Amino acid sequence: MSQPPKSKEDKRIAALNSYKILDTLAETSYDDLTFVASQICDTPISLVSLVDKDRQWFKSRVGLEASETPRNIAFCTHAIEGNDVFIVEDASRDARFKANPLVNGDPNIRFYAGAPLVTKEGFGLGTLCVIDRVPRILTEKKIRALEALSRQVVALLEFRKVAAELEQALNEVKMLNDMLPMCAWCRKVRNDEGFWTKVEDYLKDKSGVTTSHGICPECVKIEKEKIRKINF
Fold this sequence. Notes:
It contains 7 helices and 8 strands. By secondary structure, the protein is α+β, with helices and mostly antiparallel strands. It has 2 domains: 8-161, GAF domain (Beta-Lactamase), CATH 3.30.450; 189-231, no CATH class. A hairpin with a 3-residue loop joins strand 1 (45-51) and strand 2. Helix 2 packs antiparallel against helix 5. It starts with 7 loop residues before the first helix and ends with a helix. The relative contact order is 0.11.
């Protein structure tokens, strides 16, 4: 039976998982970008937030202890729906967020600006966002700077993915190089010097393993059939 087509959200989650970034350790390259975003926008909190199926997880964070929050209360869930910076100037006066526990409790969000992390395929993986505990307005220059930094986060994610794919490819090449050439007729193998030798000699030379000899049931059956044909 064919599988039902994936929804746009399923594809987005699959794209996020392909970067193998969730729940990884902190990295200076990401932390530098959140620090710069916080400095440029003059906010106490800045995050690289990745929106998973049921949570938003922070790859990097400045000014916040929590490493993740439920997705259903995440401002970033709204931000990834578009390509432009998503801005909430005063969450306590915004009908979408004024009852949000992140507004009425720690970290007491009032201002939020999230630049979506959009892949070349158009998937919003999360945001580079800045947060303040007081209402504010972000200038156009700071908005553009936040967008530029978000593109650098995406570049880091892409570099990570390419590096992982390259490592896998190299491992596959190494595995092919490590395959043991064996003669299809006599079953001798070719050693590292290019000489053909018996399998048992090769194993002994490589690892010190010694072998014993026997006959498997299939070969016993074949030999018995040969003997039967000779006798009859």
